[in-house]
Amino acid sequence: MDIAKYLEAVKATISNLDPVVLANFANHLQAAYNNNQNIYVIGNGGSAANASHFAQDLAKGIFFDAPVAKTMKAISLTDNIAHITAIANDTGYQNIFSAQINTFANTGDVLVCISGSGNSSNIIEAVKAAKQKGMFVIGVTGFDGGQLNTMSDFVVHVPLHEMCTVESIHSIIFHLIVLELRERLTGQKASGI
Question: For residue 126, which of 159, 158, 93, 163 has the smallest C-alpha distance?
């Protein structure tokens, strides 16, 4: 692998991210916060790790030492292994997120779906369940975006065809959103930026 070429590709991809799209991503999450709606985050593999990290940052990281009356109600549906494995064992892996959405979510809640391919069956089933609940769906994708790009109400797309790098860029986007929301909601700016 050409390390310098890889780093240039990552820099170029980050440079081509649309600031308006990223600002609107933050807007949708801030609207959920303002309206006391829940934010659910899902993904598989590395995207499951990103989902867990992003949900934690939304719920805790934004407000880590700020005196606020309320925090963001964000949770990753990748984290309850007992529930996930029970659903997968009893009704199939494709249902691990949709079943949780049917149990926990309400109309107006937000679902953030992280999927490199945009075609994972459990992500697609989750979107279907979310739409039936009247949720707002945000797709965070890579490659060509797959079905998730067309099914989502709002999309943040990273047009790369290498999963590790897509997941890395997604992580950068999530941290950017957390820092943006921290500044908006607490007035605390990112140090040195």
Answer: 93
Helix (H, G, I), strand (E, B) or coil at 175: helix
Q: CB under 8 Å to 121, separation ≥6 — which residues? A: 93, 94
Give me the residue spans of the domains in the chain. Answer: 16-185
Question: Rounded distance, CA 170 to CA 158, Å?
Answer: 8
Contact 13, 169 (CB under 8 A): yes
Give the separation between CA 94 and CA 99, rounded to whole angstroms: 9
The domain 16-185 is placed in CATH, from the list 1.20.210.10, 3.40.50.2300, 3.40.50.150, 3.40.50.10490, at 3.40.50.10490
Instruction: Judge contact between 138 and 110, C-beta under 8 A.
Output: yes
E-strand stretches of 21-117 = 39-42, 74-76, 110-115
pLDDT tens-digit map of 90-118: 999 999 999 999 999 999 999 999 999 99
pLDDT, tens only, 51-70: 999 999 999 988 877 777 78
Chain-centre distance for alpha carbon 179 = 15
Q: What is the pTM of this model?
A: 0.96
pLDDT (0 to 100) of residue 190: 83
Residue 1: pLDDT band by 50, 70, 90 thresholds? confident
* Residue labelled with tokens 């975006």: 145
